[in-house]
Amino acid sequence: MRLDKTEISLGLIALGCVLFGFVSPGWLIFLLTIALAKALVVQGVVMQMRSGLVSFGQGLFYCIGGYTVGMGGQFFGIHDAVAALSLGMFVAIIIAMLLGLLLTRYREIFFAMLSLAFSMILFGILVKSQELGSTDGFNVHDWTLFGWAPEAGAGSQYTVFTMTVVSGLIVAVLIHRYTKAGIGVICEAVRENEVRVEYLGLSPRWLLYGNYVAAAAVSALGGGLTALATGHVDPEMAYWTTSGEFVFIALLGGLGHVAAPFIAAIVFSFVRTYAIEFVPHTWQMILGFTLLAVIIFLPKGLWSLVSREKTGERA
Amino acid sequence: MTCILETRSLNKEFGAVIAAKDLNVQIHKGEVVGVIGSNGAGKTTFINMVTGYLKPTRGEILFNGKSIMGHSPRAITRAGMARSFQVAQLFPEMTVLDNLIVALAAAESARPSFLSPLRSDARIARAEEVLKEFGVANYRDSMVTAVPQGARKLVDIAMALIGNPQMLLLDEPTSGVSMDEKTGLMDTVMNAVRQHGVTVLFVEHDMDVVERYVSRVLAFYSGEIIADGKPAAVLADQQVRDLVTGHRPTIKQGNGAS
Fold it and tell me: Which residue of A has its CA nearest to B103?
């Protein structure tokens, strides 16, 4: 398998992150873990945006990933992190395969609202489920990694951070290849001209379906990692504001590169953390102004700062 | 000659409006057929029905002897019938080369790969070859939006032809193209079509283009075919002159009067 320049760069950055984890304070590792896990969900949102669909319900798969990891340990004795994460992705794929049959018939605002509706249905079910802790959710059991149990606290935090970085690297390389591969490029073609794609002998609907299912799997992985990092899951994971946050981060980063969602998620986490710290009553306003500034000055997202630098463009 | 496309009693009604009435057409392999008619005569409706975009109200459509009634546009494309559009249907945020590469990849497989790169050396070489064939190689790396109308039309037709179809339907290939460019565009298209041995049916308003390039003409009026035959005969037909082409004024040289 030959790696291109982007893949090598991603690998080096991931290695740098893992090494950085050794010398970072716990709060920073936690913040980065959550940011990177959310970036995986955002990757799913971005995959769909590239094909012209905006999902306002990606929290559905984020929640499925998280709850599957939690329920695996709680009810089914699955304590291995990799097995639990894989199960979360599997469940998300099955549900996406069912929902995708309906959702890929719709476009634009109808797709956005329907995806949101399914997410809110899950939220409603979880809120009413006393066995799953209702609005409080429940704690995730201690987990192991191939039989090894990391020590609670810093050890566990660093392990889940490393797992998130490695997962992020694998997903980033796969998505990088996917966007250059037949289905990735043709999904962009669907966004630009669905009629032409149909008259080239391809089914736009099935292309979007494949894309939707792949995006669900990636998002569930992000949800599962978040559950491992926080040790807790609750119905808020499926709430519409959570899905809105993923769209926010996607717009912040832009669609220009596979690294954009990671950068945007980290920037978002820092802005939010510091906004809450310094202006606890108006932190949402700070986020709003940040998005407004990005939309006005960087309509193609934060990544356009990097691409301008590369191409020598001036703002 | 073998019949490649046949329609039997093809009808299309939009409520009270009859857009196609008992269309019985046989197109033979290797023919170049021109479809003429005034606006609203049913030409594009005919093409849209044959290519699966519109569902006929009644009748039958056979392609290579097999019914394609109710088939999707993609299934009909895969069966070997490609089309271009009155307004070029391209991918505007891609380069001209990438438009052709997407078309080529689609022609190769109905299931695009998840991980192998779309831009392979073989596809790039083939797409460049087609760009040269259509005389638009100088726009290779231009975004479609930056390309002139005539070149866009050529790219649109090249995308339809790159999958080696058996039959090509062109909906007004010279519309929106300047008078000067029309002949050059049609020469390029017809040369490519001859090389690929494709049967062609095209809708056209310019009678000079029709006379010059087709071997047979179908004249449409009010959803019906009112004449079918050699261009000279159809264009001289009184009914066609009255209802489709109009009477061209005779210009008398010398006295300045018309």
Answer: A200
In a mutational test of the B interface, the residue from A170, A196, A258, A300 whose CB has the highest number of chain B CBs within 10 Å is A196
**Along chain A (315 residues), what's the average pLDDT of each consecutive run of 10 residues?**
87 94 89 96 95 94 96 90 95 97 93 95 94 90 86 84 95 92 89 93 92 96 95 94 94 91 93 88 86 87 77 49
The reply to whether B183 falls in a domain is yes
Under 8 Å between Cβ of B17 and B72: no
Residue A78 identity? I
CA B144 vs. chain centroid, Å, equals 20
Q: Is the distance from CB of A269 to CB of A58 less than 8 angstroms?
A: no
The parent domain of residue A9 ranges over 5-240
ipTM confidence: 0.87
Domain boundaries, position B135: 3-245
Q: Are B42 and B68 in contact (CB under 8 A)?
A: no
Contact between B136 and B155 (Cβ < 8 Å): yes
**Which residues, 6 or more positions from A97, have their beta carbon under 8 angstroms from its beta carbon?**
A213
Residue B227 inside a domain? The answer is yes
For residue B35, give the 3-state DSSP assignment: strand
> Which residues of chain B have a CB within 8 Å of the CB of A174?
115
Instruction: Spell out which residues of chain A touch residue B103, defining contact as CB-CB under 8 Å.
Output: 200
Q: Return residues 145-174 of A near B (CB < 8 Å).
A: 174
Would you state the structure tokens that stand for residue A198, as one six-digit string? 């149909």
